TrEMBL record:
CDD domains: SGNH_hydrolase_like_7. Transmembrane segments: none annotated. GO terms for molecular function: phosphatidylcholine lysophospholipase activity. It comes from the Bacteria. Pfam families: Lipase_GDSL_2. The keyword Signal applies. This is SGNH hydrolase-type esterase domain-containing protein. Gene3D superfamilies: SGNH hydrolase (3.40.50.1110). Residues 54-203 form the SGNH hydrolase-type esterase domain. Keywords: Signal. Residues 1-16 form the signal peptide.
Length: 213
């Protein structure tokens, strides 16, 4: 029994250290709120670097109260952990989420990503059952072409889950980012073949715009 307890403490310590690596970035976002008050009941965009690097959010959605709370390299369980600091305090009327990309790259299965996404969804809903929740599908990236089968499977699982929920939407950017031939569109990606160019973000904006509240 003592060995089991020691193992639990060890795992907990590793998780704490893992979360600690984001503290500087999270604290910087919180400091921004002190320098400039965030809008009331905004639309919060959260998730990994594809959200963090979306520099044209406010221009893409004029007239909407947008708050970018993405942090680069994050996985879904980390967004869940920091939701109490990056999502819930703002009492958002809508949360737009992009997660799962880094999870799959780290070796997680579609089922694991789905479970973590469900935890995030439920955490937001427990705070306000009427909050609109939107998921942007995991994008196809040339640098992660080996992950395409699990990306499509994860997207399908999350799409099916959201279809059964109220005040929830699934936004398909996956198919929009492919050429008619089904191949990758190189113009949508930076030199790393992972992060997006302005052209990529224009596609995202066109896909997301109709579902914003």
């Amino acid at each position: 029994m003592s060995l089991f307890i020691s193992l639990l403490l060890f795992v907990g310590s590793l998780q704490a250290q893992d979360f600690q690596k984001w503290e500087k970035e999270i604290s910087t976002l919180e400091q921004q709120d002190k320098l400039s008050a965030p809008p009331r009941k905004p639309i919060v965009f959260t998730g990994s670097s594809s959200i963090r690097l979306w520099k044209t959010l406010n221009q893409d959605f004029p007239g909407k109260k947008i708050l970018n709370r993405g942090f680069g390299g994050s996985q879904t369980f980390e967004v869940v952990h920091f939701a109490d600091r990056l999502i819930l305090p703002y009492h958002p009327k809508q949360v737009v989420i992009y997660v799962g990309d880094n999870d799959l790259a780290a070796g997680k299965t579609p089922e694991q990503v789905m479970a973590d996404f469900k935890s995030l969804f439920q955490k937001i809903r427990e705070n306000n059952r009427k909050t609109n929740i939107t998921f942007i599908s995991i994008k196809p990236s040339p640098s992660r072409k080996n992950l395409i089968p699990v990306i499509t499977q994860t997207n399908q699982l999350i799409q099916q889950y959201l279809a059964a929920q109220k005040h929830a939407t699934y936004v398909d950017v996956y198919s929009r980012m492919l050429l008619p031939s089904g191949k990758f569109n190189p113009s949508l990606y930076r030199a790393d073949s992972l992060h997006m160019t302005d052209a990529g973000y224009r596609i995202w904006a066109e896909a997301v715009r109709p579902v914003l509240k």
